[in-house]
Fold this sequence. Notes:
single chain; two-stranded antiparallel ribbon; mainly alpha; globular
Amino acid sequence: MPTADSRIATAAQAAGRHPSACLLFAQLIVVLAYPSLDGSTVGRAVLGVVQMLVVLTAVWAVRRTPVLAWVAGLLGIPAMLLSVAEAISPDTEWVVLASAAFHVPFYFFVSYAMLRYLFHDDEVTRDEIFATGAAFTVVAWGFAYLYAAAQVLWPGSFIGFNSPDGADALPWFELLYLSFTTLTSVGLSDVYPVMDQARSFVMVEQVAGVFYIALVVARMVGLAARRH
C-alpha cells in the first residue's frame, strides 16, 4: 500500500509533467473561490499571490528563457506586490492603475509564451492540450486588468446589473466575468461597455478570442492532416 510520502511524490511528478494543467486548474479554482473570499482582504491577497506564483512556475516549466526571467523580475514580482496592495485598497485609483500597468503586459507576455510552447514542434502532447485552455484564461485575466484601468481613466466606462447607471466602478470580479464572456463570444450582456474607449478594448478582445480559436483549430487540423 502506497504511503503518504509516495503519494505526494507521485503527485509532484505528475504536476512536473503537466505544468499547464496545474496552471489551468489553478485559474479555475481562483474563479470558483473568489466569490467566497471577496469580502476578505486576506483572502483576496492570498488568491492574488498564489495565482501569480502558479503562473510564473508553470510558464517557467514550459518556456524557460532569459527573457522570461527578466519579465518575472520586472513585471511579475511588482504585480504580485500590487495584488496585495489592491486587496487592501481596492478603491484607490493609483493602486488600481499601477496594478494594471504591471499585470496587463505580464499576462499578455505569458499568453505569448504559452502559444510559443504550443507551436514549438509538430507533436501535440497532453500538456500542450491543457496549455490551450491555460493560455485562454491568461488572456482573459489580462483584459480584466485592462478594463479595471479603463474605468479609472474613464469613469462610467462599464455598467452592469448592480450598477445600471454607471455611477459606481464595477468590482474586479465583474470585469473578469465580462472578459470571459467577451473572449468566448458568449456576450451575456449583463455587464457591458458604454463608453467608446471601453468599447474599443472589448472589440480588441473579441477579435483576440476569435483569432485564438481559429489559430488552435487550424493547428490541430494541420497536424492531423500531416499524420494522415
